[in-house]
């Protein structure tokens, strides 16, 4: 592991990684919790905050992408923020299937796909683990 890539990273990247670590940890915990319990709701609120911080902090991370310094992965951040809103609204209205779909789409899009993209050559996670 090359920790130089991480130690030289900006504050935005450190915030982003901390929020991602929180979200991944809580995702695993929430998958094993019984749904609808007070613990599920508590962890869910913290998870939403973590995912919102993950998405928002990404806008201060620029790689000189295709549109004003933003890349495809920033579109995922916008998607995550929209889906977070939809998921919270659905839960409050008792639309559990819509809530579940929105949350799963955030996990797959915001954590799995974006996580995979973060390990592409040239990115900090690639340098951290593979150089």
Describe the protein in words.
The chain is 74% helix and 0% strand. The chain is mostly helical and 131 residues long. It has one domain. Helix 2 (11-32) packs antiparallel against helix 3 (38-58) and helix 4 runs antiparallel to helix 5 (96-117).
Compact summary:
With 131 residues, this protein is mostly helical. The chain has helices at 4-7, 11-32, 38-58, 72-92, 96-117, 124-130.
- Kindly report how far apart the N and C termini lie: 7 Å
* Rg result: 16 Å
Beta strands, count: 0
Overall 3D shape: globular
Strand proportion, as a percent range, falls in under 5%
What order do the helices and strands come in, and which of them pair?
Elements: H1 4-7, H2 11-32, H3 38-58, H4 72-92, H5 96-117, H6 124-130
Helix pairs in contact: 2-3, 3-4, 4-5
